Amino acid sequence: MPRRQILTERQRSALFDLPTDEASLLRHYILSDDDLTHIRERRRARNRFGFALQLCALRYPGRLLSPGELIPQELSRFLAAQLGLSVGDLAEYAAREETRHEHLAALRTIYSYRSFAGRGAQELRDWLATQAEDARSNEDLVRRFVERCRQTQIILPAITTIERLCADALVEAERRIEMRIAERLDQPMRDQLNALLTEMVEGNISRFIWLRKIETGDNSAMANRLLDRLEFLQNLALDPQVLAGVPPHRVARLRRQGERYFTDGLRDIGTDRRLATLAVCAVEWAAATADAIVETHDRIVGKTWQEAKRLCDGRAADARTAVTDTLRAFSGLGMVMLEARDDGTSLEAAIATSPGWTELEKLVATASQLTDTLAADPLAHVTQGFHRFRRYAPRMLRRLDIKAAAVATPLMEAIALVRGKCDPPSLPTAFLRSTSKWNRHLKTQDEGDNRLWEVAVLFHLRDAFRSGDVWLAHSRRYADLKQALVPMAAAQATARLAVPFEAEAWLADRKARMSDGLKRLAKAARTGTLPLGSIEDGVLHMERLTAVAPKDADELILDLYRRMPEVRITDILLDVEAATGFADAFTHLRTGAPCQDKIGLLNVMLAEGLNFGLRKMAEASNTHDYWQLSRLSRWHVDSDAIDQALAMVVAAQGRLPMAQFWGMGTSASSDGQFFPTARQGEAMNLVNAKYGNDPGLKAYTHLSDQFAPFATQLIPATVSEAPYILDGLLMNEAGQRAWEQYADTGGFTDHVFATASILGYRFIPHIRDLPSKRLYVFNPAGTPSELRGLVGGRVREDLIVSNWPDILRSAATMVAGIMPPSQLLRKFASYPRQHDLALALREVGRIERTLFIIEWILDADMQRRARIGLNKGEAHHALKNALRIGRQGEIRDRTTEGQHYRLAALNLLAAIIIYWNTVHLGQAVAQRSNAGLPVPLELLSHISPLGWAHILLTGEYRWPKNGSRQSILGR
After folding, report:
1. Using CA atoms, how far apart are residues 297 and 395, in angstroms rounded to an integer?
2. Residue 404 belongs to what H/E stretch?
3. Contact between residue 883 and residue 909 where contact means Cβ atoms under 8 Å apart
4. Run of H or E residues at 285
5. How many separate helices (H) and strands (E) can be counted in the chain?
6. Which of 373, 673, 931, 962 is the most buried (most CB within 10 A)?
């Protein structure tokens, strides 16, 4: 037995079992002419069969056959067909043990296979030591070792030996990294880091726990709390170079470990490991805190603007009565003047009589005041946020290491004045555009009143961070955009890019497509053959898409769901885990060992997915108490593990026969779902008027055409959904397989159109106000006359050509995962004074949007596919609403991490139910067919695996004491 078990049974099986699927058999076990020559040298059929079988096992998976090992029928039939033998010929092979050994010796001689011993074994151990630091998981290192043995033709040793070797290599790599970091720390720095565990702040928590409370806020008090932490970390003066040469995933793992340790736990571990963990946390938390400060400033600016807008709107509403009275008075005055003109009397006498000159003067003054009130914009009221900014902004500007591009130099000069709290003789305004409304308001300020100017500087700082004109020297979210983009050579090596490397070739293709599309659209408009609309006098009219679901589909759905067994949610989790092994993804955060307590882990997933929390789940479960669940959650559950478990369930569901009736996983839809949050929460709990006055957040989910929710992201309720579309598509294999992506109006921008096309996705949003959208063409004058009213402008080809390399670099950066697509797209779309790259990407998007609009109008089937995809997403939201039964459906976690885990676990739980339903819907179809009832295949595509009426979600959550259950998935 290995000293430390690092693989699960499923992982061992995947690495070392003889394959049975056709693809693997064809890849590894096709015998060559030379192979057949050596095989035919054996006289008896059973020996030829056995010799070939040993040869295949040595090639893949690379090991010896065990005595008495059961050979899969699929492999036996595959080899028998090549050798012209029958499967029964293998039965008597190696009746003599010596025969098997003789064959093995011959294979070693002929094919140069070596045993794991001597110099070769030592070289492999040394190689393994170098690979252990880069390996991302235990399975990854074992897989590398196995591949290396195959390449060097060394026969794999026993599985227990391999696990022991890899476990030792991983432990040694971890120690080397910890020692490397610790050795770079001098004694004063070691003392400061150790003091983080002993110094107490705020009465009862250690400095270490205090530092890791990094949550974005929306007021000056929260900003100052973050600045307190940043100042402390900066005063440590810990050079980030202490982490130089450490693989990023190792840094991330040490940081996650530090975020899960309590202070006492850190005190008890070894010195090097403790110091390395503290050093990594100090460096990483400094960058994260700086990012949180910038995000907090962003929110405060937005809050100040909204308050100013509400104040402006409120004053306009308050003036409504005065406006009515003033208009009525002027109407009366006009009637008096008209009557005086008709009677030939003096206008002056008429005015003096009614209403009187004094009243007229008051009326004019009131009208002038009302005009100013109604013409005012929110900028007139933003100074009400000045004192809020003053409480933290100068300190923030002194602490953040802000860098800037040349275009932001005037802004940096203004920032220097705000940072210094000085009153210069003149206030620079070069950072403002000449057409900016700020200029007009600044001119009306009293001399010496700098409040509006400072607010303008801080507003523009927010915009500059968003656009990337300024950045932080050490940041994860606000790094230098130019430095983040991959080099052009890397972009050219990115297989995902679906466009030529020469802009001229791409433009020529788009010109040809657009010319053809415009001709077809003009012809259809002339002949009145548009499927669901018309173009009249340059105006597009679209009809509503009608439903075409067969009338018998509802009856079939009801019958199939009646045949579904009633089941507890706990049994569903056990069944699906037994079938897919998704629990294997939740390895120990430090050791990488698989979780041995699967029932406890499923309890944690259920607690998060049902929105109960661990304490309530411990009360309702019959197996674990709160502290047991808390330890499992702390050390086995993180974002990567949930994503990996989701990918395993989604992949397994996509292979089920029933799922093939719904699609082939080549299209996907995405939509945001609002979740209310508790008002006292701090993380992204923003109010979006679309969902009422309660704070909340959104889960943006991608759904495959097979109903599998393969990706979900936590986003603020107030932001646009469009930038997050590509995040989900590039997040895992399921998203990368899809080539057609549907979204609603909220997911539509020109930048998304451009990037999706460059990455090979066909982007099909359902644009609510499509008739108001304009076409952008290469030659407006050459556009057919029927369509000229739809043209909004000319494509700027020169801008695309000059920025084409950077456009490709941006897309390749998204694919490489260096910067999420949402982060790049938000920068491109954020600032009115956009740089050329953002403008060029917009031009590419206008071309793609124009081509899409043409095809959308002409293709009713495309419209119907998009509607079906979006309807699947809406039905998926209904399932999630039914699942989040705890806490009245509110997400009450105060931290971003807690909220993310809650929504990610909900998505995983939904995927598990969808898998279980897919299996049993297939079985229900078979039962109906066996009963002699018709099952029209064309109706099966209208069935959904999103039902939950047959699932018992509430009550006590009882698990089998031995952790196993007789699965009914295979029945």
Report:
1. 12
2. strand 402-404
3. yes
4. helix 271-318
5. 41, 16
6. 673
